[in-house]
Amino acid sequence: MQDRSFKAAALASAALFSLAFTPMAESQDAPAAAQLEIMIDGLRTDRGRVWVGLYASQSDWDAQTETAQSWALIEDGVARVRLAGLPSGDVALQAFHDANGNNDFDTNFLGIPQERYGFSNNPRPKFRGANWEEAVIELAPGEVRDLTISLQGARG
C-alpha cells in the first residue's frame, strides 16, 4: 500500500516538474509582430501634423476602425511614423495632413477634402477615396518594411 502511494506521489511530482520546464505552445506558435516605418511626403508646409491609420481588414477599412494609428510632426516637408506590434496579413493605411491643427480631416460642404491625404500603394482615384483593394498590402510575420505615402489633393 505504501508503494502505491509513493509511486503516485513520484509520478505526480515528475509530471509537475516536466510541465514547469515545457515551453507553452502559445508562445511557440504566436507569430512575430510586424513593423512599418512610414515616410509621408507631398506636404506643402511644415505647419500642423500628419495622422496615419492602419486597418487590418476590409470591414475595418469600411467602418473606419483603426487597428493602429499615430500622429507625426512634419520636418522639412516630410513626416515619419513607426507602427510596431502589427498583425501579419493584409492591411491598408491612410494618412492626412492636419494643416490647421484641429485633429480632423477637413472637407467642404460638398465633402471635397480641404487637406492633403494619401493611402498605402499611393493610388490616385478621382472624385473618391481609395478602396481596400487599391490600398491593401501584405505583411509577413516579423516583417519590418519601409513604406512611403505620397499625399495628394487639396491645399496643404
Task: Please give a structural write-up.
By secondary structure, the protein is an alpha+beta fold. The protein has helices spanning 2-20, 25-29, 58-63, 132-135; strands at residues 34-41, 49-55, 68-75, 78-86, 89-98, 116-119, 137-139, 144-150, 152-153. Strands 1, 2, 3, 4, 5, 6, 7, 8 and 9 form a nine-stranded mixed sheet that branches. The longest helix is centred in the first third of the chain and has 19 residues, at 2-20. The protein is globular, with a radius of gyration of 24 Å. 23% of the residues are buried.
| Biggest sheet character | 9 strands, mixed
Query: Which consecutive residue ranges, at least 5 long each, have pLDDT under 50?
Result: 8-27
Mean of the pLDDT scores? Answer: 86
Which strand-content bin applies to the residues? Answer: 35-45%
Estimated helix fraction: 10-25%
Taken in chain order, the helices and strands follow as HHEEHEEEEHEEE
* SS-based class: alpha+beta
Number of helices: 4
* DSSP strand count: 9
Ends apart, CA distance between termini? 86 Å
Rg estimate, integer Å = 24 Å
Shape: globular
Task: Summarize the model shown.
By secondary structure, the chain is an alpha+beta fold. The chain has helices at residues 2-20, 25-29, 58-63, 132-135; strands spanning 34-41, 49-55, 68-75, 78-86, 89-98, 116-119, 137-139, 144-150, 152-153.
